[in-house]
Design a protein that fits this description.
Elements (H helix, E strand, L loop, with lengths): L8 E3 L5 E3 L7 E2 L10 E4 L2 E4 L4 E2 L1 E6 L13 E6 L13 H4 L9 E2 L2 H10 L4 E4 L8 H13 L3 E6 L8 H5 L4 E5 L5 H8 L3 H14 L3 E8 L7 H14 L6 E5 L14 H13 L5 E4 L9 E2 L6 E6 L2 E5 L30 E3 L2
Helix pairs in contact: 2-3, 7-8
């Protein structure tokens, strides 16, 4: 099953084609690839060269995306391809997202085969992750369409670096998204990611105010780069004022990788300070990730303060939501997408081969 897709390109006077899928607007001569590597001009069109091919298929916990308010405890079939439309010097998945070798894509599967595997293994959703699904738009959307036909939800793990033209066409097929807000300054995006903050903020505003997508936000805190109290104040105030106080925000710890191997890992205290700033600015659901911190991985009722869900790693413990997803004690609805009972997938990771 392959659906028809819009052509995200336009012809230029000098004979090149401009890719309009993301804000990079790569201008391509015949056979030339965009910065993302996977989109290539072939004659008078720009083609996805990795359709149907993946760096691997895994069933893992939905909390790993991370999504804490979307079908908690359930398994999700996750996959990515290769390449990326940003150039983050600190990339934690650089072996996939920065790959220029097609040997990385050793697995292949059609959208229908992915759906069948997800159903056979009891998954509630399929996630497009590991590298940004924006660049493998056609493969992600076709798979999402097949998922919805078979009762599966869809998840995009994305940096939100997508054009205004492509944004609604992509996200209309997604049920949830975790958006990676990498920092809160144009200089950070320009110097460390070769991108622009403004385009990501536009995506976040679109998702909250013009779509039905459930969203959560993740910020990887890098020492001395995006972790100053001033930047965290500005970021969390912007989220509270522009997106709402109930958007779950995940602060995750950086570990030295890719071009940042000479940097220090994020101290736990830095994460704690960030969480305190976010809470002081009115955000109701703030989580810490990539660290062992049971208290700050738990979900609390924003009204009465009781613990609703505890997590040990990705394993759920206590569950105090009623069948409608409201607090058992005070009855306040908890924002998110919840089933009547908690999932029990736990910490398992299972590779799938087609």
């Amino acid at each position: 099953m392959i659906s028809e897709h819009p052509e995200f390109s336009r012809s230029l006077d000098d004979g090149r084609l401009q890719c309009t899928l993301c804000p990079r607007d790569c201008k391509l001569s015949d056979a030339q690839r965009g910065l993302c590597f996977v989109r290539q001009r072939q004659g008078n069109r720009i083609a996805l060269t990795t359709y149907g091919r993946s760096s691997g298929f895994v069933i893992d916990p939905i909390e790993k995306k991370p999504l804490n308010h979307f079908l908690p405890g359930t398994p999700v079939l996750s996959f990515g391809t290769a390449g990326c439309n940003l150039s983050c010097k600190f990339c934690q998945n650089w072996d996939i997202s920065k790959s220029r070798e097609m040997d990385t894509l050793q697995s292949s599967a059609t959208p229908d085969a992915i759906v069948q595997a997800a159903l056979e293994h009891g998954c509630r959703s399929v996630a497009f992750t590991y590298n940004d699904p924006v660049i493998f738009y056609e493969y992600a959307v076709d798979t999402a369409i097949a998922c919805h036909k078979n009762g599966l939800k869809t998840v995009a793990v994305t940096a939100g670096y997508i054009s205004e033209q492509a944004r609604p066409r992509f996200f209309e097929h997604m049920d949830a998204a975790n958006v990676d807000l990498k920092g809160f300054s144009e200089s950070f995006y320009h110097d460390l990611c070769a991108g622009s903050l403004s385009h990501v903020l536009e995506t976040l505003l679109y998702l909250v105010h013009e779509s039905q997508v459930w969203i959560e936000i993740t910020t990887l805190l890098i020492p001395d780069e995006n972790d100053s109290p001033e930047e965290l104040e500005a970021m969390t105030k912007w989220i509270a004022n522009n997106l709402g106080k109930h958007i779950p925000l995940h602060f995750t710890a950086f570990h030295p990788d890719y071009k940042f191997t000479n940097r220090s890992a994020t101290p736990h205290q830095t994460l704690m300070i960030a969480r305190k700033i976010a809470l002081n600015n009115g955000l109701k659901h703030v989580y810490l990730g990539n660290v062992h911190d049971i208290d700050n991985a738990a979900t609390y009722c924003h009204n009465c303060g009781i613990v609703l869900i505890t997590r040990m790693g990705y394993q759920l413990g206590e569950w105090h939501l009623d069948e409608q997803g409201a607090c058992e004690k005070c009855g306040s609805p908890i924002p998110g997408v919840f089933e009547a009972q908690a999932g029990n997938w736990g910490n398992r990771f299972q590779r799938i081969r087609f």
